[in-house]
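Action item from last meeting closed. Structure (481 res):
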């Protein structure tokens, strides 16, 4: 793993103090003003300590750090970096970039036969991934040109796009140990929280090393930041995580009922009804042109802010690879169960959509899942890390999500598009069908639905990436194939 600081706010520590002092000063206080004399430095440190101790944390949100993180495991990205709303990331996509056989993070403490078995399992997962991708190519190629018949004339030009669609499903067999590269931007406050919580996640050793490198990068440009670090340093034992991570409330029956589905609506609440004219108009692009703006102005627009006052709660069952995309919608909050310490049964590994449609590939995929499960269950370790690092992307995790209509409407807009990953699109379709059963909302749909409803032409904003299907003419939430 390698962490580099690409961009940063200069003098983060002094900026936090200057912002705090400005609250009580007739004239603004600049960061360079708080350290110009010995007496001011003493006042600076006292203010920094007191604001942090009192929980006045907005002072630590002015400074930001942009890191380039290379070679971190997908497990750490899912479990730690993207498990909260206070970040921004852009990372290499397994949908577009083939995974190399050597691109894996090895859990600590393995040696001898245990190490050999673990490496053999990961190597098998890569081989299975490659075989499934190759097996899928003929059927995916036909589907691609059935939707876009004009492109058959220059079929070779589209081979890369087709192979990427095959990778989308083949990656379900890849383990959480696959390396990722990403840009990751956080505030000084979030970095302090990282340092406090680094030991308390499933991939604790790797997460701790990641946070150490992030801190080292910051201290090189702002040594004073260490004063805040000393005040939050984690000296406690890690919080215990339940083996399976129990879901709250009495929803065991719902968990059983969801079976092979992706989503189940548990609750609707709020201060306004779904059929209220104010809400109906605010969510309809034919009446509210703000919804057609590409900058996403809804949270700043007074009319559209009313969509924050209806909330939905869903029980979800997504594969780890689909959930890794779903969790990027940070306006929606979640309660996530912990990863299992025992390798799951084949029934807990989801079969992706395109694989399920091709009988030959489906049988190959299921054979690989059975073999991966058999090898995974033969791993013997007191530490669950070897299990966590080999869990396939297709492992189904259960969790609860809650959020406002505004938050879900944005996710539905992005994920109902046929260019979205299949599983997360189908999960969005299930959510929308549940909500539409309570009240029809005209502003819910893929970007082409919304643009068509608002009179924008062409309906699809993707240009050459148009999926080939007139989705805007199909019922919202229904399958468009």
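Sequence:
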């Amino acid at each position: 793993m390698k962490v580099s600081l690409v961009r940063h706010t200069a003098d983060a520590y002094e900026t936090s103090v200057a912002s705090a002092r400005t609250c009580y000063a007739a004239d603004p206080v600049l960061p360079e003003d708080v350290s110009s004399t010995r007496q001011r430095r003493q006042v600076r440190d006292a203010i920094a300590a007191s604001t942090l101790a009192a929980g006045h944390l907005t002072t630590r949100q002015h400074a930001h750090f942009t890191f380039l993180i290379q070679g971190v495991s997908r497990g750490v990205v899912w479990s730690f970096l993207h498990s909260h709303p206070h970040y921004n990331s852009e990372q290499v996509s397994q949908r577009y970039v083939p995974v190399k056989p050597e691109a894996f993070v090895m859990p600590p403490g393995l040696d001898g036969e245990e190490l050999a078995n673990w490496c053999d399992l990961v190597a098998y997962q890569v081989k299975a991934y490659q075989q499934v991708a190759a097996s899928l190519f003929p059927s995916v190629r036909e589907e691609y040109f059935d939707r876009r018949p004009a492109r058959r004339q220059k079929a070779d030009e589209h081979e890369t796009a087709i192979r990427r669609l095959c990778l989308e499903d083949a990656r379900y067999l890849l383990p959480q140990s696959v390396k990722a590269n990403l840009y990751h931007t956080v505030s000084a406050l979030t970095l302090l929280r990282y340092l406090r919580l680094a030991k308390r996640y499933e991939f604790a050793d790797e997460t701790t090393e990641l946070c150490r490198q992030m801190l080292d990068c910051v201290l090189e440009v702002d040594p004073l930041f260490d004063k805040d670090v000393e005040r939050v340093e984690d000296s406690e034992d890690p919080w215990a995580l339940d083996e399976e991570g129990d879901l709250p409330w009495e929803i065991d029956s719902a968990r059983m009922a969801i079976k092979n589905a992706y989503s189940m609506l548990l609750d609707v609440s709020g201060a306004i009804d779904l059929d209220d004219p104010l809400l109906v108009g605010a969510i309809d692009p034919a009446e509210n042109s703000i919804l057609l703006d590409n900058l996403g102005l809804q949270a700043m627009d007074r009319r559209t802010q009313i969509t924050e006052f209806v909330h939905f709660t869903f029980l979800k069952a997504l594969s780890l690879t689909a959930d890794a995309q779903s969790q990027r919608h940070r306006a929606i909050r979640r309660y996530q169960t912990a990863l299992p310490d025992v390798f799951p049964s084949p029934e807990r590994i989801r079969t992706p959509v395109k694989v399920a449609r091709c009988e030959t590939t489906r049988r190959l995929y299921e054979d690989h899942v059975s073999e991966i499960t058999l090898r995974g269950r033969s791993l013997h370790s007191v530490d669950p890390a070897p299990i966590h690092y080999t869990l396939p992307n297709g492992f189904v995790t259960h969790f609860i999500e809650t959020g406002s209509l505004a938050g879900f409407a944005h996710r539905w807009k992005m994920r109902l598009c046929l260019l979205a990953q299949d599983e997360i699109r189908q999960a969005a379709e299930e959510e929308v069908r549940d909500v539409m059963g309570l009240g029809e909302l005209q502003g819910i749909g893929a970007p082409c639905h919304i643009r068509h409803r608002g009179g924008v032409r062409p309906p699809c904003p993707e240009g050459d990436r148009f999926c080939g299907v007139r989705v805007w003419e199909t019922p919202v939430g229904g399958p468009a194939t």
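Note appended to the action item: The beta strands are 2-8, 64-73, 88-91, 179-187, 263-270, 310-319, 333-336, 396-404.
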